[in-house]
Amino acid sequence: MAVLKILVPLIIGLCAYYFYSPESFSAEKVQGKRVLVTGSSAGIGEQIAYEFARMGANVMLTARRENLLEEVAQKCLELGASSAGYVIADMSNLTSAQKVIEETKSKLGGLDYLVLNHAGGNVGFHLYKGNMETVKSSMTINFLSYVQLTSSALDMLKQSEGSIIVISSMTGRIPSPFVIEYSAAKFALEGFYGGLRTEMRLRKINLAITIAVLGYIDTETAIREVSDKMTLVPSSKEECAQKIVQGGVLRHREVIYPYWSQKFVLLLRDFIPDLVDKLVGKSYKVENIS
Ligand SMILES: NC(=O)c1ccc[n+]([C@@H]2O[C@H](COP(=O)([O-])OP(=O)(O)OC[C@H]3O[C@@H](n4cnc5c(N)ncnc54)[C@H](OP(=O)(O)O)[C@@H]3O)[C@@H](O)[C@H]2O)c1
């Protein structure tokens, strides 16, 4: 009984905190803002670009495949973007990452939202066989290029009192087998951007950092890589992008999507990590991974 007296108000309080947001989301907050979305030729990045476009932002896209970038830019304009452009870049090269920011500055004159979303290198499921090259490649594309883009854009973001939205993953919170180079890069992102957020606050610099912690989302790449190797059901990339953009615009510290299933695992992880490892382990079809 005594436990219930504590538990019930606690659960009501947590629900109220989750559902009641003192600030409300509105498209006007984004109209005319300058946004760079990396990895926006496909998947979640493409959908994030469309979300910003619908609200009238100036959208800058980047990835490697020009034909797709051209199509996404065209669709952004149709959806209502104030402007839409793109720059082709390969994030395995840090100088290219730097050039993306230079190009963005020259085309948009500044930056309000930096959305760090691309993922590449050997992101598919595989057995780790001690290959340092896959580790270096993943750390460069999935971590160092994010840091390079941030470092190059920092002055613009400070000036606009803007936001950085970092796309992370449950693999950045719970160490994940068979994608360990990717998981390591996501953990590194969490460390870097979590620390940077606090440092900005302590230095009284008004720069928001939102980290999006995603579960399994139904992008082509993820379905191709995951469907025969895990027993999970994917969530919608469109809704995922909506939640990320809303959380980013409202300057929330983190966005977890899909919320309840991921949050539950994260809470359990802190109390019973061995059990969580075992439960997560059960969702892999190890025989299909080589
Ligand atoms: N889908 C999921 O289940 C899931 C779950 C958790 C977290 N996430 C995270 O969500 C983000 C988006 O994932 P997604 O599923 O949408 O991926 P995706 O569909 O494979 O899209 C990845 C994007 O990154 C770009 N990219 C890949 N390698 C690149 C490189 N070397 N240089 C520049 N751009 C590169 C791709 O474009 P080009 O090929 O044209 O370069 C593409 O636009 C990633 O950060 C991922 O870690 C996804």
What does this structure look like?
By secondary structure, the protein is of the alpha/beta class. The protein has a single domain (27-288), classed as 3-Layer(aba) Sandwich (Rossmann fold). Helix content is 53%, strand content 13%. It has ten helices and seven strands. A seven-stranded parallel sheet has the order 3-2-1-4-5-6-7, sandwiched between helices. α2 packs parallel to α3, α4 packs parallel to α5 and α9 packs across α10 (273-282). The longest helix is centred in the middle third of the chain and has 29 residues, at 132-160. The protein is globular and about 60 Å long. It starts with a helix and ends in an 8-residue tail after the last helix. The model has no long low-confidence stretch (mean pLDDT 94).
CATH superfamily: NAD(P)-binding Rossmann-like Domain
H-E string: HEHEHEHEHEHEHHEHH
Number of strands: 7
Bound ligand species: NADP nicotinamide-adenine-dinucleotide phosphate
How much is the radius of gyration in Å? 19 Å
By oligomeric state, this entry counts as single chain
Strand content: 5-15%
The best one-word shape is globular
Distance between the termini: 52 Å
In total, the number of domains comes to 1
CATH architectural group: 3-Layer(aba) Sandwich
Q: Give the % helix.
A: 40-55%
CATH class annotation:
Alpha Beta
